[in-house]
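Dear Dr. K.,

Following up on our conversation at the group meeting, I've run the structure prediction for Type IV pilus biogenesis/stability protein PilW from Thalassovita mediterranea. I'm pasting the input sequence below exactly as I used it, so you can double-check it against your construct before we proceed with anything downstream. Let me know if the numbering doesn't match what you have in your notebook.
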Amino acid sequence: MRHSIRFIPLRTSAVRMTLCIVAGLGLTACEQIRGGDQVDRALSAINAVDENNLSDIMLTVADADEAVRYFQRASKDNPDRIDLRRGLGQSLVRAGRATEAVPVWRSVTKMPGTTQDDSVDLADALIRASQWEEADRILDAVPPTVETYKRYRLEAMVADSNKEWEKSDSFYETAVGLTTRPAGVLNNWGYSKLTRGDYADAERLFAQAIKHDQSLFTAKNNIVLARGAQRNYSLPVIPMDQVERAQLLHTMGLSAVKQGDIRTGENLLREAIDTHPQHFEAAVRALRALEG
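The predicted C-alpha cells came back this morning:
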C-alpha cells in the first residue's frame, strides 16, 4: 500500500516572516560588527590620548632616567615615530647625558617630518657635550626666519665661546625679549660680562635675573663675585635664607682673598662659619688654610 506524500504550501505571509527574521539577524550581525569597529576605534583613540599624556608626564615631572628608559622602549617598538625619538633626545638632555643625546637628535633631523626646531635641539645637545664648532655649523644652517628664544640663547652662547662680544650681546638681548622667564638667560649674559671684566654691567644683569627668579642661587653667587671683583665686600640686598647667606659670605671671603685683601677675607669666612646653622666645612678649611 503506497502512502501518498502531501506537500503543504507555505503561506506567503509565513515566507515573508521567515525572510524578515533572517534579514533581521543579518542586520543585527552587521550592527554588531560595526559596533565592534567603533569600539576598537574609540579604544585606539583613548590609548593614543593616554600615551600622549604619559609622554608629557615623562618629559616634565618624571624622573629623568626613568623617562629615558620609557622613551628607549617606546622608540624601539615604534622606530618610525619621530615624537618618541624627540622625547628620547629631550630626556637624555634632562638626565645630563648630552653625549648620548647627540646621535639621537642627529637621527631625528634625518627622519620624515623633521623641523628646524629639531636642528636647534641638536645644537643644544652639541653645546652641552662641548662640541662647539659643530653646534656653530648647525645653527648657521638654520634659516634666519626661525626666531625662537632657544635659537637666540644658543647663538649667544656660541658667540661667547668665539669671543664675538657684539654678536653675543645682540643675541642675548633678543633672547630676553622672546621669553616670559628670562632669569636664566640674564644670568648667562651677566656671566659673559663677568668673564670680559665688565663687572658693573654683570652685577646689573645678575640683579635683574634675581628679580625675575628669587630662587636662582647661581645668579646670587655670581652677583657676589661681580661685587667682589670691584672690591665691594658687602652683600647685596637680595632675598636669601640663612644657609644662602653663609654660602654667599664664603664666596665673598674667597673673592676678597683673590683680590689680595686677606684680612677682609678671613673676617668674611669667620662670619660665614658663624652664620651657617650647621658645620660649614668648606669655610672652615679655607679659614684654616689662611691662618696656617
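Two things stood out to me. Residues 240-291 form one domain. The chain has a mean pLDDT of 87.

Best regards,
J.T.
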